[in-house]
Amino acid sequence: MTTPNSITKILTTPKNFASIFNWKKASAKVLSLEIQKGRIGLAVASHPSFQESVHVLEPIPLSGRALADIVPQKLEEIVKQENICGFVVSWPIQQDTGKLGYSCGLVLNTLEQILEQTSDSPIMTSKRPVCLWDGAHAELPSIDIWGRCADYARTSSNPIHLASTEQYHVPSQGNAASEVMKDFFQANWPQLHYTLQQNHHIYSSESMHTDHTWHQESDKLHAA
Fold first, then answer.
1. How do 84-90 and 130-133 pair as beta strands?
2. pLDDT tens digits along 17-47
3. 103/106 Cα distance (integer angstroms)
4. I need a labelling partner for 33 at 20 to 30 A (CA). Which of 42, 92, 194, 224 fits?
5. Is residue 89 classed as helix, strand or coil in its secondary structure?
6. Residue 33: beta bridge partners?
7. Do residues 181 and 88 lie in contact, with contact meaning Cβ atoms separated by under 8 Å?
8. 68 vs 222: CA distance, rounded Å
């Protein structure tokens, strides 16, 4: 049976996570998880200094409240095959309020079940930690010195409120695990990300110049 302390022992800050990855970058990779109702999206990546693409993996299906055995088994396989040193987990804070909703609860509940089912051979530990990352960078509500938040006094202009679509589960567009990983890299290694983008621009420009030159030479041959 897991406890709140079990979760806190495997969680770390983005700064500490980046430091661990820098230390182990020569041989290890990071696995990104996007936990939502019905599936867990997966993406794996090497250290951004290697300037390699994020590799999207086949998602793991989820069904019901209880976690199927296939979930921890699949994660354990990936950890061993890719030598994973940590997990970047999408933290779906509500974009309209900046608060934790059902989706964040689903993430924590799933992590707790993974910890419980892998207690004999843990895959998430303090040495292989989890970093919760809000790739959308939602603005958190401001709280005054007395702990009051004005957002709780705000009323909605919507005549109908559907919590199932507005608050709880909002399906992600595309592969969120990959996008979260890229955003995490950009935020924690901004110079490396800039270099990668710059190199991509140079490569694209050179390719366009080569294609243009080839077409010019081809036109001359046809004219002759």
1. parallel
2. 999 999 999 999 999 999 988 899 999 999 9
3. 5
4. 194
5. strand
6. 42, 89
7. yes
8. 65
